[in-house]
Amino acid sequence: MDYCRILSNIFSTTFSKDDGKDFMSCIEAANKHLDQKLESFNEKVDEARDTEVIALSKTIVWDVESTENVSNLVKMSKDRLSITSKSAFSTLKCNSCVIAGRYMYEVQLKSKGVMQIGFCSSQCKFTQDTGVGDTKYSYGLDGSKKRLWHVYTKNYGPYWRSGDIFGVCLDMSKGIIEYYRNGLSLGTAFEDIERGIGISLFPAVSLAFNDSLTANFGGSPFRYPVHGYKPLQLPPMKLLYQADQLLEYLVNIARLISSKHKESSTVPKSPTDISVDSLYMLISALIVERMIPLLINSYVVEDKIIKIIKSLCVCKSTSDSLIQPGVIGSTLEAFLSLLWTNMEDFEIKIFLKRLLNYLSNTFKETPTDLEYENQRTIIVILTCLCNHTQTRKFFLEHKFFKKNCLPLFLYIKPPDESTLELLLSDDIIWTEGLGGIKEVYLEACEKLKSYTSILYERQKKLILTLLNNVDGDENSPSSRKIFMNRFRSFALDNLSASFNTTTQPAIGLSLLCLLLDVAKQLHDEEKSEKPYLIVNHRYFYDNTFNYGHIDRVGGVMSHLCRVFKKELTNALGNEHQHVEIPPEPNNLLRDIYSTMFLVSTGNGTSTYSVVRNALSDQTNHQLTMPISPGNIDNHKSICEIIDCTIMFYQSVAYKYVVMIADLRDNISHLSNILMETKNCRDEVTRNLEEYKNSIEGVSSTHDEILKELSEKFCERKNIFAKRSIELARKQAWYRSVALGTQRRSLLCWLTGCVFKTIEEASSSNVLFSFVPEHYITVLPLLLDTILDFSFHDSGLQHGLVENQDLLDMSAEFLSSHLADSRVIIASCKDALIQALGTLTCHQSGIKALENCSEESQLLLVRALLRKYENRAWGQSNWIMLRFWLGENSAFAYRDPRQPCIFQDNTQTTITLPLIRGRQKNSSHTGLLHLIAPPCPSKHFQQLIRQVLIEDEQYSTGFLNSLLTQLNWAFSEFIHILQDIENLLQRDSQALLPDPRQLKICSMCFDLTISLMRALEMIVNIAPEIFKDSTRPNSDNLLGRVSQLVIQVLSRVTVPPSCFQFVIDLCLPDLISVTHFAILTAALGTILGLMSDELIFETLAKLPKVSRHILTDSSFQIACLEFALGEIKSTVHVPNADQPRGNFDPKLNRFVDPLTNEIRKIPSHRLLNERTMKNDPPILKFNLSDYMTHVTNDEIERVKKLIEVLQMRQSLLSETTLVSEDALCTICYARQNDVIFEPCLHQSCHSCIIQHLMSVKQCFYCKAFITMVKKMDGTILYTNESSPSSRADSLNIESTSTSHRDTQDLDDIDTSN
Fold this sequence. Notes:
Blueprint: H1 3-11, H2 23-39, H3 47-52, E1 53-55, H4 70-73, E2 74-76, E3 82-85, E4 89-93, E5 96-98, E6 102-109, E7 115-121, E8 138-142, E9 147-150, E10 152-155, E11 165-171, E12 176-181, E13 184-190, E14 201-208, E15 212-216, E16 230-231, H5 237-258, H6 276-295, H7 298-312, E17 316-317, E18 322-323, H8 331-342, H9 345-363, H10 373-386, H11 389-398, H12 405-409, H13 417-423, H14 438-466, H15 479-496, H16 505-525, H17 557-563, H18 565-572, H19 588-596, H20 604-623, H21 634-694, H22 701-738, H23 741-762, H24 773-777, H25 779-789, H26 804-817, H27 826-840, H28 843-850, H29 854-864, H30 873-882, H31 938-950, H32 952-986, H33 995-1021, H34 1024-1027, H35 1034-1053, H36 1058-1065, H37 1075-1089, H38 1104-1110, H39 1117-1121, E19 1157-1159, E20 1177-1179, H40 1192-1215, E21 1234-1237, E22 1242-1243, H41 1245-1252, E23 1267-1270, E24 1275-1278, H42 1283-1306
Parallel strand pairs: 6-16
Antiparallel strand pairs: 1-5, 2-3, 3-15, 4-14, 6-11, 6-15, 7-8, 7-14, 8-9, 9-10, 11-12, 12-13, 17-18, 19-20, 21-22, 21-23, 23-24
Keywords: Coiled coil, Metal-binding, Zinc, Zinc-finger
Domain RING-type: 1224-1262
Coiled coil: 24-51, 674-701
């Protein structure tokens, strides 16, 4: 063997024959050569630096010794360069200062909040309120506000972004400080700074809570070095020289190993010889031994090693194949294998962590070009490293899923604003308000997408590399198995985070969509006939997947295991391992954390950090499961990817989708403002021109006024146009990359997988209860996304022809499972309702529901018509109304917006946006706070009618519960209004009511309106229930409905009205409380009941509905006239209090005929004409003022109703007036029609039936009542427990409830 030639190939120098006579001489020669080479470097000392920089230690880092209690204020990395603030405003300075010369340092931002970076002197004292730049001898820049701070403040530079690298340059000779952002100068920031004897400046930063950055004082190469400025810490030149030499030698060995040399297969000629491979390993051991101190040095890793690895990331061509970097046979694989072989585990791990940290920090930098050249290079390097099996498994097991390392590599960050502006200039931007050419704008969006496509494909290749499933053996798991284990722990950690998720939503959505893309590709490669992946429902209960402490749709896991133990044994077999329930977490630390908010201590921040970290470690420990060796089943791994992405979408990714939709809504709002501005300008200009042309001799003043108005309109337009351009440029990124067509299609596929999985699980009967909670709670989120949020234009009703099969599938499942008894947990019940509500907000969703099977449709209708007790009736009631609102009945409710007399009526219901009420965490606040254009369904109206007509008992139970809840909601609402009125009348200087009380008041009003509209719907689509005398409960139901509706009208119209009093206060928290909503619902119900009685003809007998209305003691024609804005009938006021609003004849002289407004004193003071001029206006109510919501035909119907009732009221008073002796002395509202036995006293049936519910004695004589008969002899009640009496009791239950509900309203204090 030619040892000399081998040494020459490795060390690139000539060796003597003595050095290569045997392998021992060869090793000695190599050892000697290495020692001589490494000692030959003579380091030059920078003498000038010793007099310009005062360093307290050899390594320059953030100073923790001189800063008081800094450990309580910040969280710091081990190298003391990365810091995160854990107090209101933390300030740190460096452990070295500058007294002369030109020096700089760099900081990379990890957040974009309030931070002040710059320099300060040793004389500066900082507090939680003051930071760098807030004192005389400190200078700071806050990019979140674009401000410089040095006692004074001024504008400077652009807004900064997370990932930006700022260079902070100090020139003590000229007395200036200058900032650089990503290598570009922002100009001189401070001039003539304080200098002189005793003044030295320290690098310093101040950070608000949770803001974070990483500093570089010279311990690593500057990312953007500035010519003429030196780092505070000198580079380790000797180590760099040694690294150059040693890396060159090690790479030479790696190349020799990867090449097919004849010597590699040569058999040793004698026992003293060794093989070439063995010789390579011995020499490499000598090299690596000397390299170990260099490999853990950050400067060496970032300046030398990364360049070597980059040079090795090239494909190697052979005669029959192309070898990828990092795989067996490549130079990079040999290089990494030499390191793994010759280094201890902890040494190689430290090296790889530093290497990965550098790649991560570089990738997070803000892109300065549209090609993403830097990011693409980093992904290629990382993929090549992950091609090496040991390195890949180490990254997966120890690094990728800690601190969002891998998700950050899979996130495509938007380019810098200036870079994005080059592609999307102002003249290309399009919105509905700005105008422009939409096609040009969309073409630019597609071009932006094309720039990111290459980076996306490389990220996808990285994921596929990490999902390698052939590298497992009997001793170690495959990479895919490690990936799934760590990703599941990562997803569970985000799902169970009780304080805040650990992953940013934008990063989470990128990770999720990439995994979905890979999962879909793997599913397609299986050549399955099914388009959607179905997760085997056995995985939910056979211990295949770890769900931690996630609840199931049927309840808590421990309870389900006990209840369905037999079913589990039948499904899994006797020998299968029982389902393991993870132990409950130790709540001690969580209790400590909760207590910290109640107890304030001097070092509370430190306790916060300790407890939070301990709690996080505890959670991670519990959620991480041991990994078995070997490969994982391919289909099972794809199922697990889908399973984890479902929970990850719910916990993290969906929040980013909501942010994207919010930006779209903001653009739409700005567009409306711009169009309104244009219309106003055109109208004013046209009116002024017409006025000018109509009058001769007009002075030039009109031209000046016209010019001034034009300038004002232009100024207003420019303000909103500028903001619209900024948002539209941002939306271009959302359209093309963040939530483009590709990602939308992936989310549609995920939605299909979820529905197919739970549909398959539903067929397992009771084992459906084991479905994890997030499979159901994610449904409304996914449907929101594919039906609305993934569209970037403001129009709501999108044509979803390509997704109609998906919508049909979702509609079928939701219809048949809305009232599924197997769904126990409240969050899942609510999610099913929310998902169904999302479908009903869209025309395509209504169509999908109409396409369902008849059985599912019937199940849905019966679920909506269940009794209101013990269920979320408010939301199901809202869904039922979606099938009806918009129909031409009494009031069509074509416009879902809050009515306003100044409302724009140019928008059609198709272009109106979908308005959602959401909490801070982006979750739904309920369907009652969701406003959507109407999408009525004749089909479901007929189904509802069919169920109500055909099932008497079912419809009676539903309507009685509806009326009971309506009585409760309205009574609570009126009680709160009375409390508010009494409070302000007792004390004119009293504060406004508690916002919580107002919120409850508003909620009760919303529930009242929802219930009244449900009642209105039933009355209009199935009037026979109330008017068909052959139905046993029609009279009772009609009586209850009439009483309640009339009571509502009376309470909100007839003075003195606490409703009018609170309306006059104009409280912001009660903006939804209006006359319009409640009056239209009440009038619509009456019009529906009297639909066939609105005729002018002489009748011998009053019609049934008219009689019920006119004989009610609370009814007044004035209540109906109130809706038309003018009261002509006599108002029966219960006391002498001054009436208000439409009823006040004394205020007519204060009504402005143009604005129809009244000026009066605040509502909680007495009416006084002397103070009336200074009081705010109050608008009189009139239906004709709301022409965006009401048509002329609808108003005419109200007028006709009033005329008919007036005519029949006079007929009633002349021909059918009941004598006072014949009236019931209990209620004075109805005629006596029953008699009691044995005492023979009389009353109306409603009063005695309610009375008998609690007391069996006569009203008057207290005798025990044995029987109640009608005047015709029909027995209503008997105390004998016979079957007939039980039946009678059932029939009269609604009647008793009817009078009780009305009595509740009568009990309210009417003096107010």
